């Protein structure tokens, strides 16, 4: 089955999806994106993703490419046309195509909107059973990590370093403290309490993080929002990450050191179960 993608209002076979070489997303990374999970053909945490998209656009003084209703239709159509039962929808908005100037183009520019599906196994991801390995690496990103921009070179380098070292994710570190994963939020568990960095310009406010905070609260699991060091992480009882494409993923090794005896611990297992229960309901 040929994948159908969305490009500026049109549904096209993926090989026909094209944008201008002058697109500011391509030339300047002047664009924002969202990744929403799909389970059983239904979107997970979709409202939160659209809320964050609105914030990202506003922070960069970019126009909405269309109405929210039209975005809803686009997501639904992509699921339908690709018969997507489980996976993700990636959507990206850029400031549009214009002659190359660093300042915003003069006059009206039409934003570029593209989206596509990617089928993936999310619920029965085998990594969730074994747990994954992470490495630590310096956080090379800019100072507005709260905006979900397509400027992802530093995260791509971090993830590549992780893969080359036999790990699946890299935790980025600044001044000795873990900021977040290259494409996920970072957590440790100590004495039954979950610790994760507080929201600020230094990390992305994850939609999965937000859902998890609510679920944990309902379940009586304490989450402390503060930054933690690499040393603390190495001495933690458990560690995990969250993202739209991983949900709640146990970590069993950091920089080659086993965490929690090398097995996913009880707190992360419980939190993943709670998240999946809600997402598949
Ligand atoms: N990444 N932090 C960063 C830097 C991220 O890129 C992501 C998501 C998250 C988690 O956010 P959420 O729970 O809303 O997915 C945190 C997506 C999945 C990606 O780029 O593929």
UniProtKB/TrEMBL annotation:
Its cofactor is pyridoxal 5'-phosphate. Pathway: Amino-acid biosynthesis; L-leucine biosynthesis; L-leucine from 3-methyl-2-oxobutanoate: step 4/4; Amino-acid biosynthesis; L-valine biosynthesis; L-valine from pyruvate: step 4/4; Amino-acid biosynthesis; L-isoleucine biosynthesis; L-isoleucine from 2-oxobutanoate: step 4/4. Pfam families: Aminotran_4. GO terms for biological process: amino acid biosynthetic process; branched-chain amino acid biosynthetic process. InterPro entries: Aminotrans_IV (IPR001544), Aminotransferase-like (IPR036038), BCAT-like_C (IPR043132), BCAT-like_N (IPR043131), Class-IV_PLP-Dep_Aminotrnsfr (IPR050571). The keyword tRNA processing does not apply. One of its GO terms (cellular component) is cytosol. It catalyses: L-isoleucine + 2-oxoglutarate = (S)-3-methyl-2-oxopentanoate + L-glutamate; L-valine + 2-oxoglutarate = 3-methyl-2-oxobutanoate + L-glutamate; L-leucine + 2-oxoglutarate = 4-methyl-2-oxopentanoate + L-glutamate. GO terms for molecular function: L-isoleucine-2-oxoglutarate transaminase activity; L-leucine-2-oxoglutarate transaminase activity; L-valine-2-oxoglutarate transaminase activity. Its EC number is 2.6.1.42. The keyword Amino-acid biosynthesis applies. Belongs to the class-IV pyridoxal-phosphate-dependent aminotransferase family. Acts on leucine, isoleucine and valine. This is Probable branched-chain-amino-acid aminotransferase. It comes from Aestuariivirga litoralis.
